[in-house]
Amino acid sequence: MDPGFDGDRTHGDGVAYARERDADDPLARFRDRFDVPGEIYLDGNSLGPISDAAERSLDRAVEEWRTLGIKGWTDAERPWFRYGESLGEDLAPLVGADPDEVVVANSTTVNIHTLIGTFLDAMEDRPPGILANELDFPTDHYAIRAQLRQRGYDPDDHFHLVESRDGRTIAEADVIDALEEREIGLVFMPSVLYRSGQLLDVERIAEAAHEHDALVGFDLAHSVGVVPHDLSSHGVDFAVWCSYKYLNAGPGAIAGLYVDERHHGKTPALSGWWGHEKETQFELRETYTPADSAGAWQIGTVPVMSAAPLAGALEIVHEAGIETIRAKSLALTSYLISLVDDKLADLQCSVATPRTPEERGGHVAITHPDAERVSKTLRDRGLVVDFRPPNVIRVCPAPLYTRFEDVWEFAEQLREILADREYESVETDDTVS
After folding, report:
1. Which positions are catalytic?
2. pLDDT-based confidence at residue 306 (cuts at 50, 70, 90)
3. How much is the pTM?
4. What's the whole-number mean pLDDT along residues 272-280?
5. What domains sit in the chain, N to C, each tagged with a CATH number?
6. Angle between helix 404-419 and helix 371-380 axes, rounded to 10 deg
7. 3-class SS of residue 258
């Protein structure tokens, strides 16, 4: 861990301690590069704020459209024709991959569809059973079930879920047991569970899957940009992620995917002209020839304006350093957990996120019986968090723009809201942020 973020220094008395931590923060200079909405923004695991670099790269793309028009595909600073591959090269170090194993393309759900479909088609002698877990973000399950149905498999027979022991976490041992007990050809898991913030052991799951002759993929939506990954060395077959959370590339920003080089040359389940080999793409042949790289899993023309902010956003991540980002993230979440224990436990709050740093992603799940109204009360005060049914307040102290003092202030205001029962007068609606 970076010496600027001593993981044991989680307890301090009052705001002076938080300010001391901020004074020693090697990432403090990045805060001013973001326009952070609200008094305190703790929802970066849903949508990161805009940075000066992301805004510049978007403005640059707009100006290239203005001045170059169609020539932007070849003459832009980053030629749009290879935008997906170029940004994939920038992303590759964050996920531990070679440049040709990563591309930005499509949306996360579309990428799940095309990659699950591709590897279902490639199972050959493997059984068509797919293993996921009951705490996944629902879109993963929608896509998996749809891809099974399209191949004539009944999801009720071929889609298997690892159950949670506590309703919050998934034990890797239970994943391994499921591999031993069922016919599984493909494992698809999140790196971080979206409600509790548990970080799964990617290496252990990948190793277990391969020992049972199963392929393995991961949804990195809640870890890319805040947790370093090493997909290639861990033998992961494929992965997907979004770029609007910790990568701060903007709402609806283009997603990313990884395909290990040993699978290059396979025909994607959702083939499109943008995944054609670049050398002959504009010959517009009737026969589809996939690129011999992760670029084959692009489908339609790259959405330049949805991709452009990512170029600048990645500049900031690389300048800060993913290891330093991870170190500060763990320090912030450790501090937050200690404040919940010290200040909020007597007011019906508890931590639902694993306390062991190696098992924790970038956010902390705080439970409270009236979490929805408490979350809304916090937002009304300018403290932006989000609610997940039935009783979780998700709090994300994103390292690039969140201070230790912000975490201290959050805990102070939450204690005041709970002690005064201020939330009891708040009306809720059916909308979940």
Report:
1. 137, 219, 244-245, 394
2. very high
3. 0.95
4. 96
5. 15-35+321-423 (3.90.1150.10), 55-318 (3.40.640.10)
6. 120
7. strand
